[in-house]
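Q: Beta-lactamase hydrolase-like protein phosphatase-like domain-containing protein, please. Structure only.
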Amino acid sequence: MSDFRFVTESLSVSPQVDPADMARAAAQGFVLVINNRPDGEDPGQPSSASVEAAARAAGMDYLHVPVRGGPTPDQVEIMRAAFEAAGGPVLAFCRSGTRSIVTWSIGQALAGVDRETLVAQGYAAGYDLSGVLPA
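A: Structure for Beta-lactamase hydrolase-like protein phosphatase-like domain-containing protein:
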């Protein structure tokens, strides 16, 4: 069972989820699941298609935005737009949750959220964004 880490009222991030986690995510009120992990990164990880099927079966929307290394500007914009359009809480995941929170936080910074707020939100969720976001 994955650890959903609260970042804001609208976003939680998680290390790798399993299709079985999707019913719990829906029960907790998530409306959108964003997968930032490329398929095949680890032989034991579930496929994006299997997580998507479970998310949709649980009544949630699903988006696959695979990030390798750092996110591209297009990936940041896709995730930012999906987050804004979700209409409810979003759960984003990757191997550790780091790529998900980094991609989200860059989009938030570009939308005008101040660095200190984003770094504090990341820290509270167990992630250090101080080296990612410009001072």
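A: Brief note, in case it's useful. The longest strand covers residues 5-8.
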